[in-house]
Amino acid sequence: MAHTQCFLLLASYLFFSVSGLYFHIGETERKCFIEEIPDETMVVGNYKVEIFDKNINDFVPTVYGLGMHVEIRDPDDKIILSRTYAAEGRFTFTSHSAGEHIICLNSNSTAWLYAGQLRVHLDISVGEHAVDYQQVQAKDKLSELQLRIRQLLDQVEQITKEQNYQRTREERFRYTSDSINLRVFWWSVTQVSALVVVGIWQSLHLKNFFIQKKLV
């Protein structure tokens, strides 16, 4: 069974629209990342894999045939992407529901004959940061002003999605807090009721005991 390690990545629009990192991965290891993404938001991941060369004690480009398997699950734990890519490339997906998306990467098992420790460089872009506006400008033949307006509109749309997502999270958190508070209240009522019942029973028991012993 592959050893899995998970790292929490905050992916809100204001704080984590673009993430860049690298991590090391060994044989049978699988690395997973959690991205909080609004609904209907495009996500682009660019990655590059390097292999450790003992001769020079450094990481170098990987050998032929070694690649990365990418699996992405939505907040309902449904697989929305599962595919094996080359040692360097990109993956793209669009979220259809807001919430935590799990992005997992592991090397393809057939290439471990050549591989040792790997270093994976990973850049994740969320929302309008994932759009290549130079390509959009060339495709739609937009002027600089039109392109800038397009960017601003995309930013406004992304901010609106993020605000809606945060509002949904706040409502969910409030519902959870109210539910916990209600349970705590009824548990306290139950405890007090049990103490009252036990107290009454003890009083009656002592009263009967005194009457039987003719102490009262």
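That was protein one. Protein two is written in the same sequence-then-structure order:
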Amino acid sequence: MGSIAINVEHLSKEYRLGVINHGTLAEDLRHRFKRWRGKPDGQQLLTAAEPAVAHEPRLREGRFYALEDVSLDIEQGASVGVIGANGAGKSTLLKILSRITVPTSGRVRVKGRLATLLEVGTGFHPELTGRENIYLNGAILGMTHQEVRRNFDEIVDFADIDQFIDTPVKRYSSGMYVRLAFAVAAHLEPEILIVDEVLAVGDLNFQKKCFGRMDKVGREGRTVIFVSHNLPAVGRLCPKSLLLEDGRLVAHSNTVDVIATYVKRGLTEAPADLTFDQPLVEGKCGKIRRISLENSKGQVAGSVELTEPFYVSVEYDIVEPVEKLTVSIEVHLDELQMTIISLSDTELEPQRLETRKPGRYKARVRIPDRILNTGVYHIRSGMVRGKEIVDVIESPSFQIEDHLQITDIVGFSRKSSINALQLPWTVERLGTP
């Protein structure tokens, strides 16, 4: 394979919707009897007459194609991002590369030891302590007993769980789980490290350590495959990326171009008013429930005028008395360049950081006119308590338009700049030349 770390040739993975049998004759008879009586059966094969036809062309003759004819090469030492909408086939591709599942057709060749972090706490036994699970998970990932012992102190320090190292992991929070899982995988020192979207759990310091570790892995000449919906993070860590859509590889190039393709294909478009119904994460004090973008008239809008201000509103729930809570927004251009970051409360009145009672709150920020240039922007909103990330939401996309028709007036379009500030100019006649 030469300098190629991962070679994928015509890879496809299909699933038959439904089941052939349930493992026992009694279960088979029970489900057959259900269908005979005309009652709904969740194990029944989907047909073209059922709602799943909306998934065409990935659903054909009762078979769902999670991946279809994917071919690519990843060089040794490369850091590659994998992006795409939910259901695009990202996790399926990673599971095949990690040998968790086998492809229906095609071939994958991997050169070097591979470590994966796809699920929080994968391979952990809930009844074992953190110490015991480090040795168990290290063995599952391919580490020798000596390697685990040599890196044990670094793993515990990285995960920041030294006080609970001899506590059964069933008592760990989700954040402690992912910290320990990532710490073990990161210290495997593999030739190839695959990381799925698990870094959203954890506080700011832990995320900083994770990204620092992944940077270090890349600088050491090892291969990193990073899957995330956090496109700025992908742009920071990965010079190259690949884009999956409906199980097919549609782009594999430098990250800036791939993300631009992602945006142009409309895969990141979202309405200007979003409501979030996900349940509250255990151990968290609050949750973002709604984000909306409003024009200068206070109307929800997906596009705003360059010469007019606009507003971003964030509604959130607090379920317990909390202090030092702040809400922030980030405005990104093409998902890579952060143009605005603003924090509620602390920038205006620090005394607002005092204890806040449970309830629903609404934070609203005014963005002045002519701050941003024309283009498509994306908003990310977050809740932070001190250094702890409570919630992060990828929220609306919107467009800033220029109805002044500068092209018609002065003969050229506005230059490519993030800002559109109107700076004070003076013009005076100094005399004849």
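The chain has a mean pLDDT of 78. Keep this in mind for the problem set.
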